[in-house]
Write a structure and sequence with these properties.
heterodimer, A: 446 residues, alpha/beta, Rossmann fold, 2 domains, six-stranded parallel β-sheet, two-stranded antiparallel sheet, globular, B: 387 residues, seven-stranded mixed β-sheet, 18 strands, 35% helix, Transketolase-like_Pyr-bd (chain B), 2-oxoisovalerate dehydrogenase subunit beta, mitochondrial (chain B)
Chain lengths: 446, 387
């Protein structure tokens, strides 16, 4: 079929390139994380007597038929999964066979995240926090990938990866403190809610501009490679952010500079209101990987084991071979983009219900657990009660806490305080002393 | 590290150490530009040796005659030698760079430390931020300051705000961005720009511009050591034209400290980079033709800038002229002017004068008319004196 032959022609070029360098890679694997100093395709000396192209820019064969390569979007890159939608293992060899304790932890972290999301979304609606973004439907992408990493691996996120932090043990109090911007916030109250960060848990603080973290992750991975301490970097982003120039920059840099980096794209169907058919015309994000010379895979993001397996293998090879991997996790954003969005304006309730009821990472994992007798109705009831209780307790603590001292408005602009900023700070204080009744000083620490 | 922490050149005071330097054959030379590509109106003074003598302590170790790009190479060489995490990257840096600033470094320190990146400024700076966040020293080169704009988002939204937004959990203080800067005689719109004003509006960044090889090495080493993201603009016209005896050992010149190159009592002249040499000539002209004594200040650090030194000088002289190649509207002279009139209003004898580029893109064939040359500055001084 034309589609098949052109697909193999498109990928054939890539496969050919892979095969060509396989010999180089094999010998370098023997050096185990020894430096793959940039060799690229060894440039043969130019010899026009051969009927092969001699161009430095590409190694390929000549062809005398005019044919445009057909981009294959109809039957594109297949979606790797381990469980079906009912949580049954399809191919037993792919079951990671994790312990009951580990799987229960996956489940509890996903549901705890879900519970926290419900309560904090509600708290924004009640005017208690200014803004919130939920993670409904994408819990599997967070927990599956986080579990496959080493705790020392550096995480660069976009904004919908709270489950990664939760998996690593970020306390509920710290989540709440950041959302409330109170005096316990590690970020000192400077950013909008959900812009979490944790140095201890190797989770780089979130920033609002999209995709800026992608080339940064490449740089961090390069530095980490030079340290040679078995450390990887993972970079999360959505399919919308993947349209940014920074994404192209990050992919290209990580491939040319041979960085131990996992690119994890959460393709959840929407960038606010923009559906994927308005975001890209090619075969998603995974199909771009080969264009950069990058190993790529597409996985079922609602299958926590598929996400786990793919991330685990990508991490192992990224560090061993010093090259980036691209994982496109297909999923669905069940919630609105944020508390500022009402998605019924651009999609049907039926569509959302399908994903909520028929293909949810939490229920699929629950079916897996109940099938093994690891989780009962009673367990579910008591866990729901307990998780809700701990979230509410953290919530109430955060509500009562004062905001940080306004002095913190002026610090950390530079490592040191500057004379000019000092003057501005003093001028604010004098002003506030004079007009104190117009400033909400009681809400802030002294 | 020898820290050169002094500000003034009180005339011709030579210390004992300085005299021995003279005996070692340090030369002082004035050179007119013969090269046809450089603006004929511009003469470069190389009497840096005089101020060099007044530095605290004598410079350690031998010096070598170096031009500006060689002094940059020397600073980078020192850095790669002392800091095993340091890496230098950008377009074409591997073979030595289009301005020769990185010649020899790849062979000396290895392909993993001095390497080319793809042609993508937003990638270069983004990558550099990541290297810095991971704890290594990142020295990113942008091939021309004119091409820094694709990286504007990464610089302004990310690098500058990293520490503040994370509550000091993360920062990219280990990042230094270097870029060739300023007019070069024939550069036109896209090889002549001085974009410091765009970045001066961004808290969290440091912006530094040297006037010659000795300053370049010391200031660049300070930027690299500084725990904040720094942009270091290198006047490209001086890469070959400026030659001085530069110490081979590393040393730093403090940031955010303006340098008074010559003291005066009637007018304060402020600039940075190439334009300093124009102002020094203007100061001679003013003394000779008008009997006017000018105090010449090199700002060196644009952000955060040394408000105290400039204001103190204006309190003394009562007149201020600020000059830069960049267009006058929204140029950094506007910031200096605004602050000085706030702080020194009653001391001013005349309105503050800005002699800058016009509000046009940087032209090619019209460069001799565009640049804020010594005649325009001289005329501005005359007006201030006669106000």
């Amino acid at each position: 079929m034309a589609a098949v032959s052109s697909m193999s022609k498109m990928y054939g070029l890539c496969f050919h390139a892979v095969r060509q360098t396989a010999g180089l890679k094999a010998s370098r694997l023997l050096q185990r994380r020894g430096f793959r100093v940039t060799v690229v395709q060894l440039q043969q000396p130019f010899d026009s007597s051969l009927e092969k192209p001699q161009f430095p820019g590409a190694s390929a064969e000549f062809v005398d038929q005019l044919e445009f390569i057909q981009p294959n979007v109809i039957s594109g890159i297949p979606v790797y999964r381990v469980m079906d939608r009912q949580g049954n293992i399809i191919n037993p060899s792919q079951d990671p066979q994790l312990s009951k304790e580990t799987v229960l932890n996956f489940y509890q972290k996903m549901t705890l995240l879900n519970t926290m999301d419900r309560i904090l979304y509600e708290s924004q609606r009640q005017g208690r926090i200014s803004f919130y973004m939920t993670n409904y439907g994408e819990e599997g992408t967070h927990i599956g990938s986080a579990a496959a990493l080493d705790p020392n691996d550096l995480v660069f996120g976009q904004y919908r990866e709270a489950g990664v932090l939760m998996y690593r043990g970020f306390p509920l109090d710290h989540f709440m403190a950041q959302c409330y911007a109170n005096a316990d916030d590690l970020g000192k109250g400077r950013q909008m809610p959900v812009h979490y960060g944790s140095k201890d848990l190797n989770f780089v603080t979130i920033s609002s501009p999209l995709a800026t973290q992608i080339p940064q992750a490449a740089g961090a991975a390069y530095a980490v490679k030079r340290e040679n301490i078995n450390r990887a970097v993972i970079c999360y982003f959505g399919e919308g952010a993947a349209s940014e120039g920074d994404a192209h920059a990050g992919f290209n840099f990580s491939a040319t500079l041979e960085c131990p980096l996992i690119f994890f794209c959460r393709n959840n169907g929407y960038a606010i209101s923009t559906p994927t058919n308005e975001q890209y015309r090619g075969d998603g994000i995974a199909a771009r990987g080969p264009g950069y010379g990058m190993l790529s895979i597409r996985v079922d993001g609602n299958d926590v084991f598929a996400v786990y397996n793919a991330t685990k293998e990508a991490r192992r090879r990224a560090v061993a071979e010093n090259q980036p991997f691209l994982i496109e996790a297909m999923t669905y954003r069940i919630g609105h983009h944020s508390t500022s969005d009402d998605s019924s304006a651009y999609r049907s309730v039926d569509e959302v219900n399908y994903w909520d009821k028929q293909d949810h990472p939490i229920s699929r994992l629950r079916h897996y657990m109940t099938a093994r007798g690891w989780w009962s109705e009673d367990d579910e009831r008591s866990w729901r009660k307990q998780s809700r209780k701990t979230v509410m307790e953290a919530f109430e603590r955060a509500e009562r806490r004062l905001k940080p001292n306004p002095e913190l408005l002026f610090t950390d602009v530079y490592q040191e305080m500057t004379p000019s900023l000092n003057k501005q700070r003093e001028s604010l204080w004098r002003h506030v002393q004079q007009y104190k009744e117009h400033y909400p000083l009681d809400l802030y620490e002294k | 590290y020898l820290s050169l922490d002094r500000r003034k050149i009180p005339g011709l005071i030579l210390g004992g150490d300085a005299v021995s330097w003279l005996r070692k054959g340090i030369w002082c030379k004035t050179e007119k530009m013969k090269h046809s590509k450089l603006p004929a109106i511009f003469a470069f003074f190389m009497c840096e040796v005089l101020h060099f003598f007044n530095l605290i302590g004598s410079p350690k170790g031998p010096t070598q005659k170096m031009n500006l790009f060689q002094s940059i190479t020397s600073a980078l060489d020192n850095t790669l030698a002392s800091d095993p995490t340091a890496v230098i990257f950008g377009e074409d840096v591997a073979f030595g760079g289009v301005f020769r600033c990185t010649v020899g470094l790849r062979d000396k320190y290895g392909k993993d430390r001095v390497f080319n990146t793809p042609l993508c400024e937003q990638g270069i700076v983004g990558f550099g931020i990541g290297v810095a966040v991971a704890g290594a020293t990142a020295i990113a080169e942008i091939q021309f300051a004119d091409y820094i704009f694709p990286a504007f988002d990464q610089i302004v939204n990310e690098a500058a705000k990293y520490r503040y937004r994370s509550g000091n959990l993360f920062d990219c203080g280990n990042l230094t961005i270097r870029a060739p800067w300023g007019c070069v005689g024939h550069g036109a719109l896209y090889h002549s720009q001085s974009p410091e004003a765009f970045f001066a509006h961004c808290p969290g960044l440091k912006i530094v511009i040297p006037r010659g090889p000795i300053q370049a090495k010391g200031l660049l080493l300070s930027c690299i050591a500084d725990k904040n993201p720094c942009i270091f603009f290198e006047p490209k016209i001086l890469y070959r034209a400026a030659v001085e005896q530069v110490p081979e050992e590393p040393y730093t010149i403090p940031l955010s400290q303006a340098e008074i190159l010559q003291e005066g009592s009637d007018v304060t002249l402020v600039s940075w980079g190439t334009q300093i040499h124009v102002l020094k000539e203007v100061a001679s002209m003013a003394q000779e033709k008008l009997g006017v004594s000018c105090e010449v200040i090199d700002l060196q650090t644009i952000l955060p800038w040394d408000i105290e030194t400039v204001c103190k000088s204006v309190v003394k002289t009562g007149r201020l002229l600020i000059s830069h190649e960049a267009p006058v509207t929204g140029g950094f002279a506007a910031e200096i002017s605004s602050t000085v009139q706030e702080e020194c209003f009653l001391n001013l004898e005349a309105p503050i004068s800005r002699v800058c580029g016009y509000d046009t893109p940087f032209p090619h064939i019209f460069e001799p008319f565009y640049t804020p040359d010594k005649w325009k500055c001289f005329e501005a001084i005359k007006k201030m004196i006669n106000y």
